[in-house]
C-alpha cells in the first residue's frame, strides 16, 4: 500500500511537471533579463524602459557598451538576453561576418547620422583636399558615404547604392579630392581635431557634447531607413519576456520621453 501510494505520488508529480513545462508563459518566461545598450542616449532611454517594465514585473539589468563590436558577441554567447543599439543593416552584416543567429523583435528609435567639425561651421566651407572621417564597419561606412553623396560631395556606383554596400572603392567622382579616412566609430569623436569633418553616430556624438540639430554640418533626414531595434537570439524571439521587453520600450511613457528629451535628434520608430 505504501509503495503504491509513492508510485501514484511520483506519477502525479511527473504529470504536473510535464503540464507545467508545456504551459508556455510559465516555462519560457522569466522576470530578470540583461539588455546591452550603447553608451549615451541608450542608457538614458533604458532608465525609463526599466521603470515601465518593472510595473509588469520584468526586471532589466542594463549593460553599457562603448564599442559596437561587443554587444552582439555578448548576446550570441549568452551573456545578454537582448540588446538595443543597432539598425538592421548592421545586424545583417554582423550575422553574416561573425556567424551569429540574432534576430530583431521590435523597433526602437531612428538616430539620424551627422557629420561634425571643429574647423568649419557650414558644409559650404569644406575646402578641397579635406580629410573626412567615416566609420570602418560596413553598414555605417555605407551610410556615411550615402550621406556625402546626398550632400553633392561625391558620387557612388549605382549598384553599390542600390545594394547598400558602398565602400570607398565605389566612389566614382570626388571633385573636391576629399581624403576619406575610415576609423572605428568610437574613435571618430576623439579624432575631430585631426579631421576636417567626421561622420559620428548619435550616441557617440552626444557623449562628446555634440548636438545633431546645432552642430552637424550634414545630417540625415529623420525618415532615414536606419531604425534601431531590439535584438535577441533566434531561439528567444517568441519568448514572453521578449514581448514584454518590446512592449515596455514601445510604451507611451518611453515615446514621450524620447520626444521631449531629444527634440528630434532621436525619433521614435514605433
From TrEMBL:
Task: Locate the coiled-coil region(s) and give their ranges.
Answer: none
Keyword Secreted among record annotations: no
Sorted alphabetically, which keywords does the UniProt record give?
A: Lipoprotein, Membrane, Palmitate, Signal
Q: Which residues form the signal peptide?
A: 1-27
Q: Which InterPro entries match?
A: Lipoprotein_NlpA
Compartments annotated for it: namely: Membrane
What's in the GO CC field? membrane
Bilayer disposition of the protein: Lipid-anchor
The answer to keyword RNA-binding applying to this record is no
Which stretches are transmembrane? none
- The lineage's top-level taxon is Bacteria
Q: Name one Pfam family in it.
A: Lipoprotein_9
**Primary location:** membrane
Note the PANTHER family from the entry: D-METHIONINE-BINDING LIPOPROTEIN METQ, D-METHIONINE-BINDING LIPOPROTEIN METQ-RELATED
> Which family does this protein fall into?
Belongs to the nlpA lipoprotein family.
| Name of the protein described by the UniProt record | Lipoprotein
Amino acid at each position: 500500500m505504501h509503495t503504491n501510494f509513492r508510485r501514484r505520488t511520483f506519477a502525479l508529480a511527473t504529470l504536473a511537471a510535464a503540464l507545467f513545462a508545456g504551459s508556455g508563459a510559465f516555462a519560457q518566461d522569466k522576470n530578470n533579463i540583461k539588455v546591452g545598450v550603447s553608451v549615451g542616449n541608450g542608457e538614458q532611454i533604458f532608465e525609463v524602459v526599466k521603470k515601465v517594465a518593472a510595473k509588469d514585473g520584468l526586471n532589466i539589468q542594463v549593460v553599457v557598451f562603448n564599442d559596437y563590436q561587443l554587444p552582439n558577441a555578448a548576446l550570441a554567447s549568452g551573456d545578454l538576453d537582448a540588446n538595443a543599439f543597432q539598425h538592421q543593416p548592421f545586424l545583417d552584416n554582423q550575422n553574416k561576418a561573425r556567424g551569429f543567429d540574432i534576430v530583431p523583435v521590435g523597433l526602437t528609435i531612428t538616430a539620424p547620422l551627422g557629420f561634425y567639425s571643429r574647423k568649419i561651421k557650414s558644409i559650404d566651407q569644406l575646402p578641397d583636399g579635406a580629410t573626412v572621417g567615416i566609420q570602418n564597419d560596413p553598414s555605417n561606412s555605407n551610410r556615411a558615404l550615402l550621406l556625402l553623396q546626398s550632400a553633392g560631395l561625391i558620387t557612388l556606383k549605382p549598384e553599390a547604392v542600390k545594394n547598400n554596400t558602398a565602400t570607398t572603392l565605389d566612389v566614382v567622382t570626388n571633385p573636391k579630392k576629399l581624403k576619406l579616412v575610415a576609423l572605428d566609430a568610437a574613435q571618430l569623436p576623439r579624432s575631430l581635431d585631426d579631421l576636417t569633418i567626421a561622420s559620428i553616430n548619435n550616441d557617440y556624438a552626444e557623449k562628446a557634447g555634440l548636438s545633431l540639430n546645432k552642430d552637424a554640418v550634414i545630417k540625415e533626414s529623420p525618415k532615414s531607413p536606419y531604425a534601431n531595434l531590439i535584438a535577441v537570439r533566434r531561439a528567444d524571439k517568441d519568448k514572453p519576456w521578449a514581448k514584454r521587453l518590446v512592449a515596455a520600450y514601445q510604451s507611451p511613457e518611453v515615446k514621450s520621453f524620447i520626444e521631449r528629451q531629444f527634440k528630434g535628434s532621436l525619433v521614435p520608430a514605433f
